[in-house]
Records
---
Amino acid sequence: MRIAVMKETHLGEKRVPLIPLTADKLVKLGAELVIESGLGLSCRFADADYEKVGAMVSSSRNEMLQSADIVLRLRKPPVEEVELMRKDCIHISYLDPFNEAELVELLRRTEISAISLEMIPRSTLAQKMDVLSSQANLGGYAAVILGAEHLDKIFPMMTTPAGTIKPARVFIIGVGVAGLQAIATAKRLGAVVEAFDTRPVVEEQVKSLGAKFVKIDLGETGQTKDGYAKALTPEQLALQKEGMAKACAKADVVITTAQLFGRPAPRIIDNKMLAEMRPGSVVIDMAVETGGNVEGSELDKITEINGVRVVGFGNLPGRFAETASQMYSANLGNFVEHFWDKEQKTFHLNCNDEIMKGALITHKGEIVSEMYKSIINK
Ligand code: NAD
């Protein structure tokens, strides 16, 4: 079975989908592996490193796409490349399906079996393939490092002959995977950390990391069966803002990570709250790519609002491209291995498997994802 791995073309993207360690694993499974020349260069992996483990190297993107049984890549495929792939080709990547209805329709029409890695269920079994978790984890780390870089103060407390320096105060809104890593990283750097999430179940996790959970009574909130937050009502959002304002005003760095599955991110911090913050403090909006948690934040920009620096950088995991690639590549390798028939040396697209049921969007000319259909048809 021929697996082609495409070099990433998105401007500024340094992550690579497959590193030589995972290439070795796929070759050992019995796959005929072809990587595009230059695939790993942004992370300093040479073509020869892939050849050493038995992969072939090609400079013809068209030929690779036309001959592949499986195509692996990082980001969604460009439209013109979908048309080059063979009918029944299995395409595995990030797909961002809820924002890419036209692309999904094209994948359906061209009879590609498109697997969206973001849609892998958040189950214990699927954890080793969960790209959302591995990249969000790094994103949380990167957000704290960015906050520390843009704050004019240091994070830890210091007792020096020149006096005592107070620790920085960091407030984290949204305690999923990214938020938990942000708490842990800010604590390691010595900050005093507070956090809030609409899912009350995270309170224990926040405390176990040594941070304080900010309590705001929003009434009934809860989570979906997959553990995702439910959207708040406008009244609840207003109550949340009121409660958040105090914690934000005390903070030197605020990191927002709040997301709603398949929907735009909730707007949590408005200009009024920013105006109550101390000039010189920093807000990192980790949700800037999905609509933003912070009023006025702009993608890939630092915006100064009332003296507060609002940092809206996208692709935070990509700032640590080598680690991010290592993790993405391992997730991808584990996904392929999970469905690999070791005797036949083929990928078995098992539509009855729970993980496949979650991640497969289009198959044999149909849109098969129930989750996609339910959200897109709302
Ligand atoms: P996410 O990226 O969807 O959202 C980030 C956080 O924002 C969530 O904790 C959410 O509750 C919070 N949020 C949403 N609206 C908010 C608001 N108005 N104010 C404050 N916070 C708000 O979350 P995620 O990191 O992808 O995790 C989603 C779920 O999946 C969690 O329950 C997590 O524990 C679970 N998970 C399970 C596994 C596993 O079992 N294998 C792996 C990873 C994540």
---
Amino acid sequence: MVELAFSILASDFAHLADEVAAAERGGGSIVHVDIMDGHFVPNITFGPPMVEALRPVTKLPLDCHLMIENPDEYIPAFASAGADLISVHQETCRHLHRTLQLISEHGVLPGVVLNPATPVETLIEVLPMVHYVLVMSVNPGFGGQKFLPLALRKIAHLAELREEMGLKFRIEVDGGVAPETVASVVEAGAEMLVAGSAVFTRGKTEQSARKLLKLARAAEAAQS
Ligand code: DX5
Ligand code: ZN
């Protein structure tokens, strides 16, 4: 079943708990938290204290997308702040296997992320260790960017590899997921759909989340 992972990056930070509650009422089932360090990506967002602040306001899993250099240094802090899932960029990890192990050792579900320019093949050896693979459909750093269709082929390729290798990891997609693009990502095989600007629409968040999820579920039903 496809799930909506709403990205709080596009929310009204002054009313974060209300924003999360509205997206949840609209059917969102994962809170996607974008962590940016101003080095790996040209933007700065928030750190473990934000995760800690979110933890008591929702029971939904907190999915921390680390767009930071040296993620190993911060994984323990995100885990103790209450992260349920942590993903790291393949491009930031010199010892990706060790980093994924570190996430698991902290009792958190590990994920790995691919930038648009990074091929799926670079993950072959670590696919058996991950709970999810996140395919970026924009270059990371900002919300509200245009969807890059090259992500579709990568999602489909991952789904094929999963089948061939007899694995169970989930496929997440992030960037430009909106009413116009959501069917294509679901058809390609994505199951965790990150959406920020298409969900957090001042005063209409619940309805926007519901609409996006409805389109995703319709695309999913049309396949089976
Ligand atoms: C981009 C972030 C995304 C972002 C998506 O670097 O990883 O999660 O919030 O925003 P939209 O849905 O607006 O493209
Ligand atoms: Zn993200």
